[in-house]
Amino acid sequence: MAERITWIGALDPALRTFDVILKTANGTTYNAYVVRGSAGVAVIDTVKAPFTEEFLAKLEATARYDELTVLVLNHLEPDHTGAVAALLARAPHLQIYVSTRGLQVLRGLLKGAFERYDIRAVTTGDTVSLGDLTLRFLSTPYVHWPDTQCTFAEELGVLFTCDFLGCHYCDERLFNDAVGDFRFSFEYYFEHIMRPFRRYVVEALDLIEPLGAQMIAPGHGPILRATPEAYIQHYRRLANSRLAQATGGAKTLLIFYVSAYGATEQMAQAVCAGASEIEDVRVSLFDLQDGDVQPFVDLIEEADGLAFGTPTINGDAVRTVWDLLSSLVDIETKGKLGAAFGSFGWSGEAVAMVEARLQGLKMRVPEPGLRIKMYPGAEEEETCRAFGRSLAQHLTGQMAPREIDMTELLAAQG
User: Fold this and answer.
1) I need a labelling partner for 343 at 20 to 30 A (CA). Which of 36, 113, 277, 318 fits?
2) What would the pLDDT profile of 184-193 be if each residue is shown by its tens digit?
């Protein structure tokens, strides 16, 4: 595929679902590579287990096992390490290079055989020599696993990125300037794999962009040999916040609610009114009655705070609220402010259940959820306004940060 680099991956055109959640209308590829130096030959990643024999056949057509010196595993998910055991059975002398966080995953993969091999943990700036070629490692965690790294063949200008800058698109022509139009697959992959880790994506881009790579060789999809810098810039556009520019830096609080008989709606309006009293906070109120939650995901990703209002029906929150909360797995929610409120007639479990989900999404929940039995009266409406003010003040740093202990909350709610 380039001077002294050979593709030894596998094509999987019939694949239609990847990791349960991703649709793959064009299948995918499992890209693996051989890099040949004057004093060593490196294998970069392997393939999914069902394609092991195909991988080994391509490898054997490229190099003898006794020539191999290095195995680089940029990411240890099974679709990239399925042939590792078979390769090591044939070349047990290989020096294996993984990220520091990859060590424990590799230990689990190799089980009791871990201690037999020469395994080396590397981080940004570490190198391995292949004679006249140098492989430089770059730590790029959480794009999308903690163990992920990139490897740069310095003299050749080729960057191996595993899942980063890849996509699920299978075309035997391999290169981005030769395959069909894969823009949808590239953006779809970012949306579902990289989007929840946008801040780590930006950090990785900052690390690799100065390299000036002449070619980007990902673990899935087309190899980016034509204008690789354009794909880096496109990733940066996908990862950067747009709302912060539109709001002039003001904090944003989104309030979502579903109301069965109007009581939770009254609460939502009062919470909104209270939050709106605080300067430098933009507050938006959304009724989820129509049930279509997908349009809100982009807005939520850019928001600083989220509040969810739901009545308790049959001992649970309303399904539309759960639908919206479940859709948030595709975005980064860690550190956002979260809150819950709602009316109830008998038991009132919904608020605590929503709060538990917010904490599961690693949001900070600084105020105990607000529950009101039946319809709010004048005093209770003021309580709702105060609740909104408190949320806005937490967003602007006017209140000391604190986190609700869920055991205390549950005890307080009986």
Assistant:
1) 277
2) 999 999 988 9
The CATH number of domain 251-409, selected from 3.40.190.170, 3.40.630.30, 3.90.550.10, 3.40.50.360: 3.40.50.360
Between CA 316 and CA 349 the distance in angstroms is 6
pLDDT tens by residue, 298-324: 889 989 999 999 999 999 999 999 999
Going by C-alpha positions, the residue among 249, 255, 246, 217 that lies closest to residue 31 is 217
For residue 167, the surrounding DSSP H or E stretch is none
Residue 228 and residue 216 in contact, taking contact as beta carbons nearer than 8 Å: yes
Which helix H or strand E contains 301, and what residues bound it?
helix 297-302
The two beta strands, 127-129 and 118-122, are unpaired
31 CB burial (10 A radius; 0-12, 13-18, 19+): buried
Q: Which residue has the tokens 């881009």?
A: 205
CA-based radius of gyration for the chain? 26
Backbone angles phi, psi at 234, to 5 degrees: -65, -40
Q: Which residues, at least 6 apart from 52, have a Cβ–Cβ distance to it below 8 Å?
A: 46, 82, 83, 86
Angle between helices 350-360 and 319-326 (to 10 degrees): 0
- Other beta carbons less than 10 A from residue 26's beta carbon: 20
Which of 3.40.30.10, 3.60.15.10, 3.40.50.2000, 3.40.630.30 is the CATH number of 5-239? Answer: 3.60.15.10
d(CA 217, CA 162): 7
242: confidence class by pLDDT, cuts 50, 70, 90:
low
Single-letter amino acid, residue 173? R
CA distances from 348 to 123, 310, 345 (A): 50, 10, 7
State the pTM of this model: 0.79
Q: Above 60 in pLDDT, residue 403? A: no
Buried/exposed 88-117: b ≥16 CB within 10 Å, e otherwise: beebeebbbbbbebbbebbeebbeeeeeeb
Q: State CA 348 to chain mean position distance.
A: 34
